Amino acid sequence: MAEQNTEAKLKNLLKQKKIQLWNPPYTDDDNQPGQQHMEELAQHCAPLLGLSVAEVGGALESVRVQAVNRGKGNKTYRETNVATLELLLPRDSRKVVCVFLCCRIGDDHGLKYIKLILNGKTLCVGESRLDEQGVKNHSKMMVLKVSDAELKRQMSEEEQKKKEQNESLQRTQKGFQILSERGALILAMGFHEKGRSLMKRKQYDNALCHLLQLDIVWCYRALEALSCLDDGKSRLRRAEDCFLQCYGEQRERLRMIKGNTGREEVLFLRLYLLQSLLSYLEGNDGQAQQQLSKVESLFSRLCLDSEKMAQLMALGFSEREARLGLRACQGDLEAAANHISSRRQVAPAPAPAPAPQLEPTASSASTGKTPPHLWTVGGAFFTQD
């Protein structure tokens, strides 16, 4: 990550000075570096970035090679219409490479079944053209392995999806509109909850296809692939706008409805942390530090006292109740205990287990009448009476 930060700051500096490393005198006709000019440029940039000449020299060469390869890819794309893509392979075979997209990806890297992720979306290879799915020359894509069980599950889901689509086409237009308005929200939230469940089990690659804005970026961070998410900042901006709209600028709407903001503050903690990381990867250290200050301030408020947690749990509260209660009451032990107790009182009591149904007596069976008192509350005859 530190290398990405250095290269990002160096690229910004070169852009400001309008220096093109892929052209002479920094790159000769054989695409080899112009050593003297590269060394002079490193000495010039090092004090501006506050780094050593050796660090800047290594980063300059890396940026130069990337630029030369990009130029080659652009030329190939213009002449043959074959795009060059950058793939981030799974962790156990992690290596960033540039290859021509073809069906040999799996063979070249020993991956039997794969799926390609571009900006949080799974590419449907074979169903539509890649450019129609947002793939461009030099796009960065993440390659994820698919197990045999996962492949079977995907095929089953695709079959079920097609079946449901065929059934929906047979419905009336009015019914379809109702489904598109209500069902879309239900479907989206169902997918999101499934994704959150997968995240809890640290199955980030499978969770990616089911999540909303903030959690998508979080999964890319967990997969160490933030550089592959071109629209990460815009996703976080949309998430922040939604939070502020729902909760209020100072969480006032949330306090009015719930009386506290404990659980939702964790969302803002993750939001600020991801914003800080993305700014750092872009070489914007000032903005990254500003966001990190928000993270540290919020974390200090959310960090719980272990002794208070133990005292609440000694009173019979669960660890989860103690944690949420302390966060809701800003660490006040007495207020947290009262808060948990009040929530327990308003929580619906669990439904009692149904008693076994009784058979009608012999006398009632002979007369054809069933006395209501011989049946449980859930029995059909009793409810009819």
UniProtKB/TrEMBL annotation:
Residues 341-374 are annotated as: Disordered. Transmembrane segments: none annotated. GO terms for biological process: regulation of ubiquitin-dependent protein catabolic process. Gene3D superfamilies: DNA helicase RuvA subunit, C-terminal domain, Phosphatidylinositol 3-kinase Catalytic Subunit, Chain A, domain 1. Residues 146-175 form a coiled coil. PANTHER family: NEDD8 ULTIMATE BUSTER 1, NEDD8 ULTIMATE BUSTER-1 BS4 PROTEIN. Pfam families: UBA (PF00627), Ubiquitin_5 (PF18037). Residues 360-369 have a biased composition (Polar residues). This is NEDD8 ultimate buster 1-like. The keyword Kinase does not apply. Residues 303-343 form the UBA domain. The keyword Disulfide bond does not apply. Keywords: Coiled coil. It comes from the Eukaryota.
